[in-house]
Recover the amino acids of this structure.
């Protein structure tokens, strides 16, 4: 598909059989598989750790290994989707994810749980990577930011349900029940894709998997400054979110004494802040444009990080000391992700799969590094959460205020 063939507005290309409303629903479900996979079991993580007789570090590995596999696998899924199309890769990925979900729920030991979660992450890579590439198949770059914000609003709605549902299931039925819900979600999404999603890639690249072509494509993507600006934006934003998710269950439940259900409600409130951010994103894009919208979101991120540090230095031992500043970070996250994800793939209409894969890999590499760092920190304190989020918030603001204004102009050439 050439750049000029994309519709100038936010409607899908007329050459597909996908209506605008269904496009947003499908994208929301595909993108939501990531928070469903991570958020739903977080309230059960301390109980899971005790049930399997494992350490906190190994519990973190169930999340960090999943996300590393998620990121690395996209490097293979991206070229495969450019060669064979989005639809077959989605079907394979969702089927493999379903099988891994069953294995995770039935795992008798922490070691096997890590193995199944790793497989789950690899399969999830196909799903999310294809979703981002589909946005570039259907939309121009700037229209893609608006469409992505709509899909991520749906993601926010689903994420709002995940943590409370996970807490209720863990309390009532145990941690395995929370993991079984992932299987039901995967089956429902697989059915919708199989029955209603047409192929969105207008022209497959028969040479996409040839080594020389891969090298040239990767070099082209990695040599484009706009890709780095927007990919680093999404990477820093996701790094802060992952740090909070990975550390929050122990901080809120073990350190601050919240019940699993109350912790689930706390995560619900952060998802609501993210949801508001995606809604705000569309309004700001229409009024301020891309660069100024990202800059404002950078200010929200910086305020959230500074607020966490200030509350920590003040010695405020309350869940609100973590939640209130993090709401500001999540508002910014709801703006950075749609703008960053669409901006990262925008310059590459012929290689959206590879660009999406590299962007996803960078985010998950940061998440894995954060998980490894958190696993090495002392237990029994919320300080690692504060320090980690504050670091990513500062980096995120710097990227939003320097790299994005300098290199966002590269998007206009790809319209």
């Amino acid at each position: 598909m050439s750049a000029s063939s994309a519709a100038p507005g936010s409607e899908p290309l007329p050459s597909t059989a996908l209506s605008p409303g269904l496009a947003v629903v499908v994208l929301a479900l595909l993108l939501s598989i990531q928070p469903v996979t991570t958020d739903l079991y977080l309230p059960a993580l301390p109980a899971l750790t005790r049930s399997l007789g494992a350490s906190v570090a190994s519990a973190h590995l169930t999340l960090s290994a999943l996300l590393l596999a998620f990121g690395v696998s996209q490097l293979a899924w991206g070229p495969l989707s450019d060669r064979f199309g989005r639809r077959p890769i989605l079907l394979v990925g969702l089927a493999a994810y379903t099988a891994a979900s069953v294995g995770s729920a039935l795992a008798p030991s922490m070691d096997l749980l890590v193995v199944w979660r790793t497989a789950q992450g690899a399969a999830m890579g196909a799903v999310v990577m294809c979703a981002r590439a589909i946005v570039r198949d259907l939309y121009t770059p700037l229209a893609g930011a608006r469409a992505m914000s709509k899909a991520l609003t749906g993601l926010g709605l689903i994420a709002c349900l995940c943590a409370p549902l996970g807490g209720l299931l863990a309390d009532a039925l145990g941690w395995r029940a929370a993991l079984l819900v992932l299987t039901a979600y995967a089956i429902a999404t697989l059915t919708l894709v199989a029955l209603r999603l047409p192929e969105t890639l207008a022209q497959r690249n028969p040479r996409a998997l040839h080594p020389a072509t891969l090298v040239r494509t990767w070099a082209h993507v990695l040599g484009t400054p706009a890709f780095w600006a927007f990919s680093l934006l999404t990477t820093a934003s996701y790094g802060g979110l992952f740090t909070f998710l990975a550390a929050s269950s122990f901080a809120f439940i073990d350190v601050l004494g919240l019940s699993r259900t109350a912790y689930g409600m706390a995560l619900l409130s952060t998802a609501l802040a993210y949801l508001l951010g995606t809604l705000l994103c569309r309004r700001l894009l229409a009024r301020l444009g891309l660069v100024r919208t990202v800059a404002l979101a950078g200010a929200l991120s910086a305020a959230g990080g500074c607020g966490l540090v200030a509350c920590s230095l003040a010695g405020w031992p309350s869940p609100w000391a973590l939640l209130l500043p993090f709401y500001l970070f999540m508002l910014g996250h709801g703006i950075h992700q749609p703008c960053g994800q669409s901006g990262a793939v925008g310059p590459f209409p012929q290689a959206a799969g590879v660009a999406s894969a590299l962007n996803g890999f960078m985010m998950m590499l940061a998440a894995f590094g954060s998980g490894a760092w958190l696993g090495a920190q002392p237990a029994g304190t919320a300080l690692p959460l504060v320090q980690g989020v504050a670091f990513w918030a500062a980096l995120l603001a710097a990227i939003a205020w320097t790299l994005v204004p300098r290199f966002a102009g590269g998007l206009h050439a790809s319209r």
Q: What stands out?
A: The CA atoms of residues 99 and 183 lie 8 Å apart. Residues 1-16 have pLDDT under 50 and may be disordered. The chain is about 80% helix and 0% strand. The radius of gyration is 20 Å.
